[in-house]
């Protein structure tokens, strides 16, 4: 757990699933079922991290691991808690877990128009590696392009040979 005043980052448990599902549905409707988050909290190849502010879940990040790659499946911060570094700290805590697992690169997918999320990912060093045109289909609006982003430096912190030229 990392700590900063009343704010904590840590592993979520199945008991946090309802709060996380509600937060996710608000941030990225329609969201996913609570049961998916409850299962993810105990799945060996996933990490469900939560940010809490005085006990209230105000953000979460869900990572999946496969071989030496990881994928960011979801991340969201409650609207009234955004802009205070919660997502940055959630991602950094997940990077720590990636290092422990000798993960070589992390992938994610983001809507091209999602400026806030793209800002977060770019700041953390992710770079666009592919475009998927018309990937997201919304009932009420036109389809949207997805960008695939990758960060492949997390391993260097634990394996000096990989970072040396
Ligand atoms: C994307 C999201 C998780 C960022 O959470 P957050 O806690 O506000 O992020 P942080 O405070 O850690 O900010 C990290 C960076 O994100 C970017 N960012 C955050 N808010 C932003 C805004 N309003 N406008 C532009 N960029 C923004 C900035 O690059 C920021 O870095 P900076 O503060 O050094 O400028 C949050 O906006 C969110 O939940 N959005 C809805 C869900 C979503 O889109 N998830 C991602 C799906 S791929």
From TrEMBL:
It comes from the Bacteria. One of its GO terms (cellular component) is ribosome. Signal peptide: none annotated. CDD domains: NAT_SF. Pfam families: Acetyltransf_1 (PF00583). InterPro entries: AcTrfase_RimI/Ard1 (IPR006464), Acyl_CoA_acyltransferase (IPR016181), GNAT_dom (IPR000182), YpeA/RimI_acetyltransf (IPR050680). GO terms for molecular function: N-acetyltransferase activity. Residues 7-154 form the N-acetyltransferase domain. Keywords: Acyltransferase, Cytoplasm, Ribonucleoprotein, Ribosomal protein, Transferase. PANTHER family: ACETYLTRANSFERASE, N-ACETYLTRANSFERASE DOMAIN-CONTAINING PROTEIN. Belongs to the acetyltransferase family. RimI subfamily. This is Ribosomal protein S18-alanine N-acetyltransferase.
């Amino acid at each position: 757990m990392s700590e900063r005043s009343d704010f904590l980052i840590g592993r979520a448990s199945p008991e946090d699933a309802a709060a996380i599902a509600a937060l996710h549905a608000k941030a990225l409707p329609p969201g996913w079922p609570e049961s998916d988050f409850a299962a993810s909290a105990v799945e060996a190849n996933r990490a469900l991290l939560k940010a809490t502010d005085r006990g209230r879940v105000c953000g979460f990040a869900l990572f999946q691991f496969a071989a030496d790659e990881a994928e960011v499946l979801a991340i969201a911060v409650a609207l009234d808690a955004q802009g205070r570094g919660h997502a940055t700290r959630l991602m950094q805590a997940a990077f720590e877990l990636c290092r422990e697992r000798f993960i070589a690169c992390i992938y994610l997918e983001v809507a091209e128009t999602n400026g806030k999320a793209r800002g977060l990912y770019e700041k953390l060093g992710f770079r666009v590696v592919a475009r998927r045109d018309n990937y997201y289909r919304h009932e009420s609006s036109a389809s949207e392009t997805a960008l695939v982003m990758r960060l492949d430096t997390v391993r260097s912190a634990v394996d000096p040979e990989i970072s040396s030229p």
